[in-house]
Amino acid sequence: MPELPEMETYKALLGSKIGGLNISAIEIGREKSINVPVDKFTMQVSNQAVKTITRRAKYLVFQLQNGKCLLLHLMLGGWMFFGKEEDKPNRTIQVKLSFGEQHLFFIGLRLGYLHLLSPEEVEEEFKKLGPEVLNPDFTLDAFHQLMHKRRGAIKTTLINQEVLAGIGNGYSDEILWHAEIRPDQKINELDDQQLSRLYHSIQFILKRGIQQGGYMENPLYIGDDKTGGYQFYVYDREGQGCSRCNSSIIKSEISSRKTFFCPNCQQ
Ligand SMILES: [Zn+2]
Question: What is the dotted CATH code of the domain comprising 4-126?
């Protein structure tokens, strides 16, 4: 599932492709991907310019000229492609937003969705979310305070969107490897030094993820050499050597999520 760095990469690349452009046509291939009747969606979204694209947690918000918002969550398996009709991937398209000759194709939206909402409704959706971990006001102190209230395995907490926003299954393993902490460690058994290391690893890994273009498999457009450049340390690398100590990375399961870590240098 795309996480903070993937959505941040989409935000930046889409901003340069469709920012300020007018949505000239809409096609809905799967009505369940939207939240209102097709004709209402089409009426309120067509001929609107995309003013800005913002990100919160794993969501993107397309702000339209008329004040309405399109709230996107890709969930598991969702992705996007931008380009001409003849270049589109040979996949079922759930939603297509046209910008003249070019189109933004939404693919794999089975659990994911594109909802038409007012800014107030978007805020309501975001109320349940924890802090944005890369915001400057999310300080080391704020992190310590948040963690002191928690119990349970650290991995489960890192991916809980109501505690911290934007971290999912992939980057939680990367962060814990970087901080040299086992994913099944109990939070209340971590000392202050480990918690501080964890805070800095969250910052480091997510910024590295953004810088390297995240881990999505498919490019956003033809010639896109940014998307998918992220190199994993441990995630999906079962049996391969740890780049710190060369021990074999193992795969395990925590709260029924597949988890990768180095049994030697993560404690
Ligand atoms: Zn290791």
Answer: 3.20.190.10
Closest C-alpha to 262, from 167, 191, 246, 172: 246
Distance 222 CA to ligand 1 centre (A): 37
Alpha carbon of 15 to ligand 1 centroid (Å)? 39
Distance between Cα 101 and ligand 1 center (Å): 50
Residues whose Cβ atom is located within 5 A of ion ligand 1 = 242, 244-245, 247, 262, 264-265
pLDDT tens string 196-225: 999 999 999 999 999 999 999 999 999 999
Domain boundaries, the chain: 4-126, 140-261
What does the DSSP assignment read for 158-197? HT-TTTSBS--HHHHHHHHHHTT--TT-BGGG--HHHHHH
> Ligand 1 centre from 151 Cα, in Å?
26
Q: Does domain 140-261 have CATH number 2.130.10.10?
A: no
Rounded distance between C-alpha atoms, residue 86 and residue 114, angstroms = 24
Q: Per-residue pLDDT tens for 43-85?
A: 999 999 999 999 999 999 999 999 999 999 999 999 999 999 9
